[in-house]
Design a protein that fits this description.
By secondary structure, the protein is α+β, with helices and mostly antiparallel strands. It has two domains: 3-184, Ribosomal Protein S5, domain 2; 192-326, GHMP kinase, C-terminal domain (Alpha-Beta Plaits). It is 35% helix and 23% strand. It has nine helices and 13 strands. Strand 11 (295-298) and strand 12 (304-309) form a beta hairpin. It starts with a helix and ends in a 5-residue tail after the last strand.
Length: 331
């Protein structure tokens, strides 16, 4: 089954009026990473993953019908060239919904309050916000689960950005992917803090899709990744249930480093780290050795996300004074 065939079951029969809509979706930080696909067409993952959403950091997207020959795609106030990769991905996603509106074109205005394509999950929040807007604009009235599946077709991690707090992306086993979607975890963790260390906010040279493909095809180390991820997922569930920060932080950090190890073992080597990334890691390790409960995680990019609790906030800021801090569950 391809993406278009999957969406057919959700489209209303006959043309419906298209409305203008605006929606927000948060970015998310994976504590157990998604890296590698079992089906590229449907964005089905090799392993299940678990994330925490970033509250007010993410993407706001507005869509409106226009009288034009092509979609207009705007990113952070700048109109994107129709042939740009960003505009092509957005229009390609919208195409899936135009069966009854083949001539309709949309203006899409996307505003990120996090760096775009820099390893901070902007594509996750972007496609989640776009999916929410299209759901309303095309009067689909999808459930949260179906909307998560829909967002996944644009960007895998977007299926987690449909929810707040902790979210598990179930990998599923069905070929059509209808059992592969985000599921919110009810547990809350007041005081849990995520600090963004922005080493480089520029767009990365190798996007995550290409990076996953290279890693899976060329890195022998990748064979151990699904087992690592499944074990880490179990331990993270335990950490969240028991509110065990030491376990949560250590598993998340090892999971991130294990994922990056498979990238480095790819050919040509895929190294998203920069010297400042490594310096920040070493600082975290030294601070932890000195007794500060501080861990980090990293997605496919040079930027770190520090994990700590509220009572460590002042000490962390002393060593990372420019840190942007998010507390998804409040103080």
């Amino acid at each position: 089954m391809n993406r278009a065939e999957l969406i057919q079951q959700w489209l209303p029969h006959g043309p419906q009026p298209i409305a203008s809509e605006t929606h927000f979706a948060p970015s998310n930080i994976a504590l157990c990473k998604y890296w590698g696909k079992r089906d590229s067409e449907l964005n089905l993952p090799v392993n299940a993953s678990l994330s925490v959403s970033l509250d007010t950091l993410g993407t706001r997207t507005a869509v409106e019908p226009i009288d034009a020959d092509a979609d207009e795609v705007w990113l952070n106030g700048e109109r994107q060239a129709p042939q740009s990769r960003f505009a092509q991905r957005v229009s390609g996603f919208i195409d899936l919904f135009r069966v009854h509106h083949p001539q309709t074109r949309l203006r899409v205005r996307t505003e990120n309050n996090i760096p775009t394509a820099a390893g901070l999950a902007s594509s996750a929040s972007g496609f989640a916000a776009l999916a929410r807007a299209l759901n309303q604009a095309f009067a689909l009235e999808l459930s949260a689960t179906d909307l998560s599946i829909l967002a996944r077709l644009g960007s895998g991690s977007a299926c987690r950005s449909l929810f707040d707090g902790f979210v598990e992306w179930q990998m599923g086993v069905r070929d059509d992917g209808l059992d592969s979607h985000g599921v919110p975890i009810e547990a809350r963790w007041p005081g849990l803090s995520i600090g963004l260390v922005k080493v480089d906010e520029r767009e990365k040279s190798v996007d995550s899709r290409a990076g996953m493909r290279r890693t899976k095809e060329t890195a022998h180390l990748y064979q151990s990744w699904p087992l690592q991820a499944s074990t880490d997922l179990i331990r993270l569930r335990e950490a969240i249930s028991a509110r065990d920060f030491g376990l949560l932080g250590s598993v998340a950090e090892q999971n991130a480093l294990s994922m990056h190890a498979t990238m480095i073992a790819s050919w040509p080597p895929l190294l998203y780290w920069q010297p400042d990334s490594v310096a920040a890691m070493q600082k975290v390790w030294q601070l932890r050795n000195d007794g500060l409960a501080l861990y980090f995680t990293m997605d496919a990019g040079p930027n770190l996300k520090l994990l700590f609790e509220q009572d460590s906030r002042d000490a962390v800021l002393e060593h990372f004074p420019t840190l942007e801090i998010v507390q998804p569950f409040g103080v």
